[in-house]
Amino acid sequence: MIIEVNLLPGRQKKRGGGAPFGGLADRLRVATRDRYLTAAVGTLTATVLGVGALHTLQTRDGGDLAEREAAAVADSTRYSSVIKARREAVAERDSVERQLAIIAAIDSNRYVWAHVLDEVSSSLPPYTWLVNVRQTSAAPTPKAARVDSTLQKKDAPPARPGEAKPDTAADGALRFRLVGQTVDIQALTTYMRDLELSPFVHRVQLAESKAVAVDGRDLTEFTLDGEFEQPARGAIRTRVTTVPLR
Question: Most buried in the list 58, 86, 124, 218, measured by CB within 10 Å?
């Protein structure tokens, strides 16, 4: 005689041929549940490994960046005094070069009128003389001063309507006018040609020519306009002059 004890009250034991089908269904449910569980565990494991690998890489890169930053800060601290001294030396050099350029520009304009007067007098043909020599342009300005003036004009506000504009035609060249007299009209042509051949004078033009009577003689009075020209290096001859001191 076999005694059966029902441990699950309310659940009746299946009878007859239904037992095999019920067991198969239970096994299928368990297998399905195990497959999803395995997939979930695999996904979780892969996620944990990926996060760990990324953390390791980020930590290593962060350490490298920290070392590079420390090295850069050390180099900047070491060379800061050298960089400062170099900047001061460059600024001083630029200031000296600017002063030397201004001095050279002023010195180059020092003997302009001496050359002009020497050329206009030495080129005079016979029976021709000058009555008046005057400058018709502003005094030549040093090159550095012209650059500063150009920068100031660029920074200046635009002119208002009806306001007179500044004179922008001046290019720093020295222009002059000669008034002379001659007894021979051909001498005037010769004088203009000789002035154009001079390395210091160019753009010689006849402004006026008229007949005048001076002391009972008929003369030709002429007016010439010219411009000083900076000669080439080969056209300038220098000579050393020694002055004894007492």
Answer: 124
pTM: 0.45
Return averaged pLDDT per consecutive 10 residues of the chain, 246 residues in all.
62 50 61 72 84 85 84 80 88 90 74 86 91 82 50 49 42 84 90 91 90 88 90 71 69
Comparing CA positions, the residue from 233, 119, 93 lying closest to residue 176 is: 119
For residues 74 and 66, give the distance between their C-alpha atoms in angstroms, rounded to a whole number: 12
Task: Judge contact between 144 and 98, C-beta under 8 A.
Answer: yes
d(CA 222, CA 182): 8
* Element containing residue 23 per DSSP (H, E): helix 18-108
The CATH fold assigned to 112-145+173-230 is Alpha-Beta Plaits (3.30.70)
Q: Report the DSSP pairing between strands 201-214 and 128-135.
A: unpaired
Report d(CA 197, CA 24) in Å as an integer. Answer: 125
Give the max Cα distance, the chain: 180
